[in-house]
């Protein structure tokens, strides 16, 4: 026989019945036996509901239910607060950002998708929908980036107009979305600068267009083991990235600059421009007059602006990092030999990322291999290419 579960109103009625029987002279044990429970149950009921009436029990039950609802509401608010605190900072305006945020909250707090979506304001159908990009998205992005590169001072609205003129059926909002996704922005307005005929030798304005169009040169200093200083005059072809010469000597003056340039002009021809900073050896009247006399033009960068001579400055950094920092030169002659060996390695072997990981002046040209025959009898193993060993600067 299953045990009966008494309601609070029934318990109060039975307690009142026992009180009446006891007041009539019956013992507590007989009165408890008459209501069909044990004395242990009676005293437990009396401790919990003793002195209460039916309306008071009903009110207590309502208060308990309200207390449970309040606890649940507080727990829900606390969980929502944790979800919002775990979510990304700022406004989640796009469904994609909310989708990623919901997934992060589900993994971090171990909550259901329903709860996370409700707290973050994301519809569950939107959360489960797989976004599908348009077929022309990639081509539109490519054209937009190309126009932004060509017209650097244009914003996305003007770029949108240019795209429409080119035949694209797009609105400004879609162009703005791609614009922001690719991180494009109108650069800060640069200070006005003169044109090339106003002696502006920056590598931003005067760009190399072909071999021997623009050369650049600069000085680098180092010391031998005895602490004595020596200088290096580096000459670089900006278009091919080839190091044309490195003159190493204790002292290098304007006459030495003319000597190095004259040897290179005889060997390779006269370049269109020679870029340099405003060092005394480069701005000397004798150097300027000699360069002008042979048919070249000087291009001087702005004072205190080494970034305008970026090609040779980049080469100087490579020379310092890959060559000079790992060597101890015990004599000037040793420095001349080792640095010249490094220069040849730089030109003929070292791969350059800007040239497709090829050296600027390789000594060996590998021809394209012919297609394999349909059924070769015994194809011979391909000949192993001779790779020049990188010189050790020690």
From TrEMBL:
Positions with biased composition (Pro residues): 373-382
Keyword entries, A-Z: Coiled coil
Keyword Coiled coil attached: yes
Example GO biological process: DNA transposition
Coiled-coil region(s): 53-80
Keyword set includes Glycoprotein: no
Region (Disordered) location: 368-394
PROSITE patterns linked: INTEGRASE
Regions of compositional bias (Low complexity) in chain numbering: 383-394
Protein name: IS3 family transposase
Entry-linked InterPro entries: Homeodomain-like_sf, HTH-like_dom, Integrase_cat-core, RNaseH-like_sf, RNaseH_sf, Transpos_IS3, Transposase_8
Top-rank taxon: Bacteria
Cross-referenced Pfam families: HTH_21, HTH_Tnp_1, rve_3
GO terms assigned for molecular function: DNA binding; transposase activity
Residues of the Integrase catalytic domain: 204-367
């Amino acid at each position: 026989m299953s045990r009966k579960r008494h309601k609070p109103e029934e318990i109060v009625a039975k307690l009142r019945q026992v009180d009446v029987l006891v007041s009539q002279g019956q013992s507590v044990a007989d009165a408890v036996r008459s209501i069909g429970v044990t004395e242990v149950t009676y005293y437990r009921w009396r401790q919990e509901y003793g002195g209460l009436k039916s309306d008071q029990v009903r009110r207590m039950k309502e208060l308990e239910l309200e207390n449970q609802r309040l606890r649940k509401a507080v727990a829900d608010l606390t969980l929502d607060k944790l979800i919002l605190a775990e979510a990304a900072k700022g406004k989640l305006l796009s469904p994609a950002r909310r989708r990623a945020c919901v997934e992060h909250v589900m993994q971090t707090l171990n909550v259901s998708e329903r709860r996370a979506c409700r707290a973050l304001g994301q519809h569950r159908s939107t959360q489960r929908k797989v976004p599908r990009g348009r077929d022309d998205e990639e081509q539109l992005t490519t054209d937009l980036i190309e126009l932004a590169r060509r017209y650097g001072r244009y914003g996305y609205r003007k770029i949108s107009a240019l795209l429409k003129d080119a035949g694209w059926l797009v609105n400004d909002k879609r162009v703005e979305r791609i614009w922001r996704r690719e991180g494009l922005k109108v650069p800060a307005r640069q200070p006005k600068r003169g044109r090339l005929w106003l002696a502006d030798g920056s590598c931003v304005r005067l760009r190399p267009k072909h071999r021997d169009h623009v050369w650049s040169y600069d000085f680098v200093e180092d010391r031998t083991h005895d602490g004595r200083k020596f200088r290096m005059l580096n000459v670089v072809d900006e278009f091919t990235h080839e190091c044309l010469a490195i003159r190493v000597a204790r002292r290098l003056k304007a006459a030495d600059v003319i000597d190095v340039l004259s040897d290179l002009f005889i060997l390779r021809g006269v370049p269109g421009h020679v870029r340099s900073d405003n060092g005394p050896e480069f701005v000397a009247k004798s150097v300027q007059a000699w360069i002008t006399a042979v048919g070249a033009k000087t291009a001087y960068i702005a004072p205190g602006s080494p970034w305008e001579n970026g090609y040779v400055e980049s080469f100087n950094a490579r020379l310092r990092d890959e060559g000079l920092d790992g060597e101890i030169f015990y004599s000037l002659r040793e420095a001349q030999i080792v640095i010249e060996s490094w220069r040849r390695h730089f030109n003929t072997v070292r791969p350059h990322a800007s040239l497709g990981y090829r050296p600027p002046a390789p000594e060996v040209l590998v021809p394209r291999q012919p297609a394999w025959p349909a059924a070769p009898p015994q194809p011979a193993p391909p000949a192993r290419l001779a790779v020049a060993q990188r010189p050790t600067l020690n």
